[in-house]
Specification:
- This protein is an alpha+beta fold.
- The chain has two domains: 211 residues, Hypothetical protein, domain 2 (Endonuclease III, domain 1), CATH 1.10.340; 118 residues, Nucleoside Triphosphate Pyrophosphohydrolase (Alpha-Beta Complex), CATH 3.90.79.
- The strands form three sheets. Strands 1, 5, 6, 7 and 8 form a five-stranded mixed beta sheet that branches. Strands 2-9 form a two-stranded antiparallel sheet. The protein has a two-stranded antiparallel sheet with strand order 3-4.
- A hairpin with a 3-residue loop joins strand 7 and strand 8.
- Helix 2 packs antiparallel against helix 8.
- It is elongated, with a radius of gyration of 24 Å.
Length: 344
């Protein structure tokens, strides 16, 4: 039995029951693939169900505000995925009459859809022979064939895509889902089940005792350390202030408390001076430290050393927001956790 047939046999016996596997509707498949790009199934599943309930069709999503989409996405991270998803929903509705393109070449032109997602939609929904290559597939192929080319190098990306073409099965819909599932469950990153693996006889990595050395990745760029100081201003009516992040940085278009970013961790004296400048209209205020030790929020490329400073004032905020409505705003999970824990 060849490689691809073993994958199909394994998949038929071990596949998980997931809601998007009950349909060929490209909207459902697209939604699940966007969510699972950098998210485990266990975490992504409730978000998928929440989105399908709120936006049953691509037209429903296109008609919604970006703010509503971001609010539903809150907690999944990588918010550019949500913004791109919303933009693509509008394109599908306005330019394709609500119907997703049926070919890889057309799908990959849509915003936020790369090689992997276009291949997944084209093969699963329209049976187009396009192999998928995601993190799970890289792992299976690199281990089975003993390939030590870095999977995040241009040479590696090209090599593995060509290899995926060579070994794919004509039953492309089940094969693509099967090899991804195999990589997620059987050929897992840290504890693969090599002892009972149907591919063990031909696995080069297993034969050479290199299972935990593959796949190879080039070293990531150095993680930056940043220092965030959020000013939680509370007036006499217990109103506060939220600002919307703009620009192309992290958390674009999400809301946050006024932010002071510093080069290092700072103390109360520095914050008092900065608050006086930022909120010059406040006649009097008292500042207290919410968290003595910084909360370290780890992102892929930077670690945020975060402190929340409570700024109490007897003055009225002209642009204040009632604390009862705070949870309506899409915010980073770091801010959401604070809002849930702090008693205004």
């Amino acid at each position: 039995m060849v490689f691809s047939e073993k994958i199909l046999t394994w998949y038929a016996e071990n596949k998980r029951v997931l809601p998007w596997r009950r349909t060929k509707n490209p909207y459902n498949i697209w939604l699940s693939e966007v969510m699972l790009q950098q998210t485990r199934v266990a975490q992504g599943l409730p978000y998928y169900e929440k989105f399908i309930k709120e936006f049953p069709t691509v037209k429903d999503m296109a008609a919604a505000s970006e703010e509503k989409v971001l609010k539903l996405w809150q907690g999944l991270g990588y918010y550019s995925r949500a913004r791109n998803m919303h933009a693509t929903a509008k394109i599908v509705v306005n330019e394709f009459d609500g119907k997703f393109p049926s070919t890889y070449k057309e799908l990959i032109k849509l915003r936020g859809i790369g090689d992997y997602t276009a291949s997944a939609i084209a093969s699963i929904c329209f049976d187009e022979p396009e192999p998928v290559v995601d993190g799970n597939v890289y792992r299976v192929l690199s281990r089975y064939f003993g390939i030590d080319l870095p999977i995040n190098s241009s040479e590696g990306v090209k090599y593995f895509k060509n290899l995926a073409w060579e070994v794919m099965h004509t039953n492309i819909r089940d094969y693509n889902q099967g090899i991804m599932e195999f990589g997620a469950i059987q050929c897992a990153p840290k504890k693969p089940y090599c002892l009972h693996c149907p591919l063990s006889e031909g696995c080069v990595a297993l034969a050479k005792n290199k299972v935990h050395e593959l796949p190879v990745k080039l070293k990531k760029t150095k993680v930056k350390q940043k220092y965030f100081n959020y000013l939680v201003v509370i007036d006499s009516n217990k109103n506060t202030i939220l600002e919307q992040r703009t620009g192309k940085g992290i958390w674009q278009n999400l809301y946050q408390f006024p932010l002071i970013e510093t080069d290092t961790q700072v103390g109360l004296d520095v914050i008092k001076v900065k608050v006086a400048k930022v909120f010059s209209s406040l006649k009097g205020f008292e500042i207290s430290e919410f968290n003595e030790k910084p909360i370290i929020h780890k992102l892929s490329h930077q670690h945020l050393h975060t402190k929340f400073w409570i700024v109490q004032s007897n003055d009225m905020l002209s642009n204040g927001i009632s604390n009862d409505t705070l949870e309506q705003y899409p915010v980073p999970v770091l801010i959401a956790d604070f809002i849930r824990s702090f008693k205004f």
